[in-house]
Amino acid sequence: MAELGLQRESPWDEATTLEKLTRALQARGFGILATLRVHEILKEKTGTEIPPLVILDVCAPRYALRALTVHRGSALVLPCKIVLTQEPGRLMVVLQRPTVVLDRLFPEPALRHLGIEVEQELAEAITAATAPDSGAGRAG
User: Fold this and answer.
1) Is the pTM of this model over 0.85?
2) Which residues make Cβ contacts (< 8 Å) with residue 1, sequence separation at least 6?
3) Helix orientation angle between 109-130 and 14-27, rounded to the nearest 10 degrees
4) DSSP per-residue string spanning 61-87
């Protein structure tokens, strides 16, 4: 069974990681549609404190349109998710792998190929944003 999440440790704090990740995503045609600061929401709604946890809804319209054209039900897994989670002494950036999600819900070859493309782009963005000497742009 393939792992649902692909993760990398960031050498940066949350704000710097988010800034670098935003630039790396933009360089690949992705935007952040929503930023959910789960730890803040839970504190406000329940009074409970948890370590920082941020969920990013990210999307590239060209990929979303292709997915919806192949199978309208793919809207259930749009947009893609990237999570920034604070673990003891480190910040992790985790991608919910589009290939795994699409394979499980919509096992169609066209969506499989699309999932591979999207996952590669998002993984490259995360790698660029978490590289110690990163400018977070696209090389070359």
Assistant:
1) yes
2) none
3) 130
4) HHHHHHHHHH-GGGGGG-SEEEEEEEE
Split into its structural domains, the chain has a count of 1
What does the alpha-carbon distance between residue 105 and residue 99 come to, in Å, rounded to a whole number? 10
Let me know: does 27 contact 43? Beta carbons within 8 Å: no
Q: Which pLDDT tens digit goes with each residue over 20-74?
A: 999 999 999 999 999 999 999 999 999 999 999 999 999 999 999 999 999 999 9
Residue 136, Ramachandran bin (φ over 0: left; ψ between -120 and 50: alpha; else beta): left
The reply to whether 3 falls in a domain is no
102: pLDDT strictly greater than 50:
yes
Residue 29 lies in a domain: yes
